[in-house]
């Protein structure tokens, strides 16, 4: 059973690595339209299951869930901008700084103590970000600058939603969490869907595939793996998403792998990995 769980998370990470390819294949759509497919498809798909299980209602703290869903909508928009404006490698590497921001937010706003090792890894990650952006212009006229800034913004937004949703996990089923995570986005981005000028059935088909694959299949595989594996093992395996995304971008889109994306990306991922590991150790220690 554990082997199946490992395979499930590996497949999950490899599928998640297709994020950038799918987003770039929908570049003829507006960012808001892509965001609608990503958020609305999971919502519409899950409604029958939630009705059947009598779970189409709020529990716990509804205001917190709605706030998290709203922040997730903003995060989703920035995430899409990141992949549309810069390379897949740049976007996915910078997005994976989110464990660092989780640590920083918990320290600044929730009084969590910061260990010396955590401080060192936070500093190392910042150096990695600087290396990744080396040689690129700091200007809003630069697509790379907009894309990479959006990736960091999406990372911060994701870190906030991780903290908010985490505090409510005991009150909701997994289907409910996925549903409410995307609910506000599905409503907010609906106006971008009207008319879909110049968009044909192939693009709509890709949009639906994107919403189902990334919004449902990826999450289901991850949750399946998480049942049998420790959180440490599951989240560590998810770093394969970064490798998968960069390899796909290189071979399919012919994206260049510069020295700074390799060196800076490695620095950021190592920092994020060890920050996540330290955070999980703290959680385990506080729960015993």
Automatic annotation (TrEMBL):
The keyword Hydrolase does not apply. Residues 4-133, 146-276 form the EamA domain. The chain crosses the membrane at residues 5-23, 35-53, 65-85, 91-109, 121-139, 145-165, 177-198, 204-224, 236-253, 259-276. This is DMT family transporter. Keywords: Membrane, Transmembrane, Transmembrane helix. SUPFAM superfamilies: Multidrug resistance efflux transporter EmrE. One of its GO terms (cellular component) is membrane. The keyword Ligase does not apply. Signal peptide: none annotated. It holds the Pfam family EamA.
């Amino acid at each position: 059973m554990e082997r199946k769980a490992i395979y499930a998370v590996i497949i999950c990470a490899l599928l998640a690595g297709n994020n950038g390819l799918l987003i770039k294949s929908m570049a003829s759509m507006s960012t808001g339209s892509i965001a609608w497919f990503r958020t609305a498809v999971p919502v519409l798909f899950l409604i029958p299951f939630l009705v059947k299980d009598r779970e189409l209602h709020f529990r716990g703290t509804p205001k917190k869930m709605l706030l998290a869903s709203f922040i997730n909508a903003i995060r989703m928009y920035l995430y899409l901008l990141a992949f549309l404006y810069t390379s897949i490698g740049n976007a996915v590497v910078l997005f994976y700084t989110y464990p660092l921001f989780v640590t920083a937010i918990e320290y600044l706003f929730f009084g969590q103590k910061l260990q010396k090792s955590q401080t060192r890894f936070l500093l190392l990650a910042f150096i990695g970000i600087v290396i990744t952006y080396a040689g690129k212009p700091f200007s809003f006229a630069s697509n790379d600058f907009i894309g990479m800034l959006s990736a960091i913004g999406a990372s911060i937004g994701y870190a906030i939603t991780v903290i908010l949703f985490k505090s409510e996990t005991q009150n909701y089923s997994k289907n409910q969490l996925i549903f409410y995570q995307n609910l506000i986005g599905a409503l907010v981005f609906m106006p971008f869907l009207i008319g879909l000028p110049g968009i044909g059935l192939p693009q709509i088909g890709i949009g639906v595939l994107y919403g189902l694959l990334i919004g449902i299949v990826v999450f289901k595989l991850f949750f399946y793996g998480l049942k049998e594996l420790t959180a440490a093992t599951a989240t560590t395996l998810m770093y394969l998403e970064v490798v998968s995304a960069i390899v796909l971008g290189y071979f399919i889109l012919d994206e260049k792998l510069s020295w700074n994306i390799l060196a800076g990306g490695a620095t950021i991922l190592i920092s994020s990995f060890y920050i996540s590991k330290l955070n999980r150790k703290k959680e385990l220690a506080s729960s015993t």
